[in-house]
Amino acid sequence: MTLAATLSGCAWGGQGDRQDVRPPAAPRGLTVQAGSATTAHVMWNQATDDTEVTGYVVYRDAKKVKEVPGRRHMVDVTGLKPSTSYAFTVRARDAEGNLSEDSRRLTVTTPAAAAADHKPPTRPARLRGEAEGSRSAMLSWGKSRDDRAVASYEIYQGASKIHSVGGGQTATLVTGLRPGTDYTFTVKARDAADNFSPASPAVRLTTAAGKDSGRGTAPAGFRATTHRADGAYYIDLTWTPPRTGGAVTEYQIQLDGRTATSLVFGGTAPKDRAEHSFYIGRKAGERHRVRIRPKLPDGTWGAYSPTRTVTTG
């Protein structure tokens, strides 16, 4: 016991080498997409740590299934069963082995298997790309044909897969790009039996130079008004969702400079015009500033809308 106490009081490298016991923050922005009857594509945003995130651990139904290095923020989980629901979470790890809390938990259902299917889908046609400012690009393509059905489309930047969307979607917003940089993208179709189409013709584009606000990912036409009902005041919001190639199901509402709440649309999310109303109080003559931002399909937050000022009463 005395020896143990003596050793623990002796720091081999001095006070500057104290062990890191603080875990990283939990990964945010988790998204999961079924790639086929037996695979799922899991993506998340980079986690933060007081030193460095060295890896991520992916869990399927609370069981560890994948480990990836800290520079990667996506992985394909294979060996799944057709027509089965799976729940995924991700944790970040630092160099000392400290693990973060779980990310949010997302569930995905794999499509039914296609028995004895060896025929791949046709290649996606007419791939088009347009830079959306300095850090994102909008891609769109023609539908592929398959003898059964297209389960997903896989998006590649050069030779690296960077995203996956459902088989009913033929456009997507790619984020996290660098300003003033040339990019080459292709798309492949995938069916439930894991047959891949040939790659689409490549599209090349250059992001805008310099910094921008990411306004291309912000809601458009944002308006805010107030109304009174049963002695209370409410703020009414309307906007047009940004172009992302898919539905935007979640928004973050900021009120008077602070995050007030997250708005999540259940069922079918609006594509052309969205609206939301929330309680603000019972006092007349109060001024409030409000703005919103969308959560994009790849799990990242888009840009904020312009700030609107409203007065109750």
Describe the structure concisely:
The chain has one helix and 21 strands. By secondary structure, the protein is mainly β.
How are the SSEs placed, and which strands pair?
Elements: H1 2-8, E1 31-34, E2 40-43, E3 53-60, E4 63-69, E5 74-77, E6 85-94, E7 106-109, E8 128-131, E9 137-140, E10 150-157, E11 160-166, E12 171-174, E13 182-191, E14 203-206, E15 220-229, E16 232-240, E17 250-255, E18 258-264, E19 274-281, E20 287-294, E21 308-311
Antiparallel strand pairs: 1-2, 2-5, 3-4, 3-6, 6-7, 8-9, 9-12, 10-11, 10-13, 13-14, 15-16, 16-19, 17-18, 17-20, 20-21
Describe what this molecule looks like in 3D.
Helix content is 2%, strand content 43%. By secondary structure, it is mainly beta. The strands form six sheets. The chain has a four-stranded antiparallel beta sheet with strand order 4-3-6-7, with no helix packed on it. A four-stranded antiparallel beta sheet has the order 11-10-13-14, with no helix packed on it. Strands 18-17-20-21 form a four-stranded antiparallel beta sheet, with no helix packed on it. Strand 1 (31-34) and strand 2 (40-43) form a beta hairpin. It is globular, with a radius of gyration of 23 Å. Residues 1-25, 110-141 are annotated as: Disordered.
